[in-house]
Specification:
- Keywords: Coiled coil.
- By secondary structure, the chain is mainly alpha-helical.
- The chain has one domain.
- The protein is built from one helix and no strands.
- It is rod-shaped, with a radius of gyration of 31 Å.
């Protein structure tokens, strides 16, 4: 009887170990998908921010051209 109990527990451990591996693989897959989505969002935001900075710099240049600063006026530091 004791031998059967030992076999049963070994089978149980083997079975639960397999489930644990499947769960771990699933968690890794979900994590990878999540990070992939976040990475693409970050790249889109970065691209949009760079574009916006360029637009503002262009607008600033247009304003400077239209309303030039006098030499006595203080210039904002870059």
């Amino acid at each position: 009887m004791k031998m059967m109990r030992g076999c049963k527990s070994r089978l149980h451990k083997s079975y639960t170990h397999g489930i644990g591996l499947k769960n771990l693989e699933q968690q890794i897959k979900e994590r990878d998908e999540k990070y992939s989505e976040l990475d693409s969002k970050l790249n889109r935001l970065h691209k949009r921010a760079k574009k916006r900075i360029q637009e503002v710099q262009k607008l600033y240049g247009q304003v400077e051209d239209r309303f030039p600063l006098k030499e006595n006026d203080a210039r904002p530091s870059d």
